[in-house]
TrEMBL record:
Sequence similarity: Belongs to the tannase family.
Position of the signal peptide: 1-19
Pfam families reported in the protein's UniProt record: Tannase
Name of protein: Carboxylic ester hydrolase
EC numbers on record: 3.1.1.-
BP terms from Gene Ontology: xylan catabolic process
Length: 477
């Protein structure tokens, strides 16, 4: 699956994605009624409302919402307690993707409950949360009397009320929240991340912060960057929640990951494998790039991979990407899409003979393609043409904290403009081999400059201002 390998293609076609904030997409609200559910689960309502149109216990929605409601039949396999009233009703308020803060909250109940805390949920929705709640497993309306509690005679209803109802409602409402915002991603990374493996931007930022604090100092300076992610020996399983620990603290700050999220992240680091041959189909993503993975989880998959599979590879507009076979179907991609889209020619002799010089820059925190792909390409060129020959016309500059063809919006202190022509022109015109490159103008508006080095060299701090590129030297580490 190598059709995103061409930097130029990717830069050109994804240019519009750079604008604006991190995109989060959502599916049509009403389509949630089509989600397939386990026995006993129903969705009774999924409707979008404009701001001001829903009144929940006198609290009105200040933003548009997707209102989803449903029921869970429970205890029906326990004939000793069956009385026909074992129905839990749940409620879910979903902000539109543009208002969503990435957090999911479940509102509990008090007393004998029997109704949903709609007003509290609405307050949270207005802050950008996806908010869920339930009636604790029985309803006042069904019982018909707010002071009398006939449900107490029913063991299953009592257990639901006192212990289980929130967990029961959480499972389905969290799945629907995931479904709504994360319909589907770039293919491998997307298939690894749906459901409980989905990582919101908060979770991704949490991972990146942890990885950076573990590996930032390797190059001799603590600057919020990993100079060479290949030297970073980081084990993500250390972030796994302990038994019973919630992934957020009381302030809603992410503090650990579920085991499904750990597995999803490990798969993104590893990259897709051809399950028949066992070889890598495409490189994994690098340490420090996690905060850009939201693109892998959403927009790339929907806007690119799905369309390419539908229109080029399988010639079937109804193609279901979930059925992609990571064994047999890989060669189909290589024979159909790759000749059209890939740029992986490994014999550049005629370019070299014409006197061509090529400089490739690649951000280590690229949101869209695996950072190590150009390194692999360089190594393939060296195998085909010999290392010395390649070095005479081709240099790769890896950019720590760099994004896709420029800044990564999550790394605002990293200069996003690379002064390529300063070294390419002297190379072409005077034969001066590039030994370093200056990068300038970080998005945060400071005067920070950084030294970029021809791979496999990386920048090491020597002395002076850490934000000045002349304080570093390039060497192999
Ligand atoms: C509020 O909760 C009740 C159940 O207690 C539900 O029937 C009703 O539809 C909810 N209203 C809104 C606006 O969510
Ligand atoms: C609720 O049930 C209690 C206990 O049976 C009864 O005294 C009361 O009249 C009922 N209230 C209504 C409104 O039905
Ligand atoms: C939650 O936020 C408050 C106010 O910023 C802070 O004092 C408190 O330490 C935080 N609690 C946790 C668990 O981080
Ligand atoms: C696609 O396939 C998956 C897995 O087989 C299935 O769960 C899903 O419903 C299918 N989607 C559509 C739109 O048919
Ligand atoms: C793709 O994989 C599917 C599911 O395993 C299989 O049925 C189909 O024959 C494969 N198609 C090709 C062209 O390899
Ligand atoms: C950046 O450098 C220029 C020229 O030296 C200087 O005028 C400006 O104040 C500097 N800006 C910052 C934010 O340091």
């Amino acid at each position: 699956m190598s059709f995103l390998r061409s930097g130029i293609l990717v830069c050109a076609t994804l240019a519009t994605v750079h604008a604006g904030s991190v995109p989060r997409t959502s599916i049509d609200c009403s389509s949630l009624t089509g989600v397939s559910l386990s026995a006993g689960y129903s969705i009774t309502r999924a409707e979008e409302y404009a701001a001001g149109d829903v009144d929940a216990s006198d609290i009105v929605n200040e933003i548009s919402l997707c209102l989803v409601q449903g029921t869970i039949e429970y205890g029906f396999d326990d004939v000793s307690v069956k009385n026909g009233a074992n129905t839990l009703t749940w409620n879910l308020y979903l902000p539109l993707a543009s208002d969503y803060n990435g957090r999911f909250i479940v509102i509990g109940n008090g007393g004998y409950a029997g109704d949903i805390n709609n007003g509290t949920m609405m307050g949270q929705l207005n802050l950008g949360y996806a908010a869920a709640g339930c009636d604790s497993g029985h309803s006042i309306a069904a019982n018909g009397n707010t002071t009398y509690a006939p449900f107490l005679a029913n063991t299953a209803e009592v257990e639901a009320w006192i212990h289980n109802s929130i967990a029961m409602a959480t499972t389905i409402t969290r799945e629907l929240t995931t479904e709504y915002y994360a319909k589907a991603p770039f293919l491998w990374n997307g298939l690894q991340t749906p459901g409980t493996g989905y990582m919101s931007q908060d979770v991704l930022d949490f991972i990146t912060n942890s990885v950076i604090s573990a590996c930032d100092a390797i190059d001799g300076v603590v600057d919020g960057l990993i100079e060479n992610p290949l030297l970073c020996d980081y084990d993500i399983t250390q972030l796994e929640c302990t038994k019973g620990q919630s992934i957020t603290d009381t302030n809603g700050t992410v503090v650990c990951l579920t085991s499904a999220q750990i597995k999803a992240a490990e798969a993104v680091y590893t990259g897709p494998k051809n399950v028949l041959m066992g070889d890598a189909v495409y490189p994994g993503f690098s340490f420090g790039s996690e905060n850009g993975w939201i693109y892998q989880e959403t927009i790339l998959y929907e806007d690119y991979t799905t369309l390419i599979l539908e229109e080029i590879v399988f010639d079937d507009l109804a193609y279901n990407v979930s059925s992609f076979n990571w064994g047999s179907n890989v060669s189909r991609v290589d024979s159909t899409a790759s000749p059209l889209i890939d740029e992986i020619w490994t014999d550049l002799s005629s370019f070299q003979k014409r006197g061509g010089k090529m400089i490739v820059t690649q951000g280590w925190a690229d949101q869209f393609n695996a950072a190590t792909w150009p390194i692999q390409h360089l190594e393939q060129l060296q195998v085909v043409m010999s290392a010395d020959r390649v070095n005479s016309f081709f240099e790769l500059f890896m950019v720590p904290g760099g994004g896709h063809c420029g800044s990564n919006p999550e790394y605002t202190h990293v200069p996003g403009t690379y002064n390529v022509l300063d070294v390419l022109v002297p190379w072409v015109e005077q034969g001066i081999q590039p030994t370093q490159m200056e990068s300038v103008t970080p998005p945060d508006g400071t005067n920070t400059t950084r030294k970029l080095c021809p791979w496999p060299k990386t920048a090491h701090y020597v002395e002076g201002d850490v934000d000045d590129w002349t304080s570093y030297s390039c060497s192999e580490s």
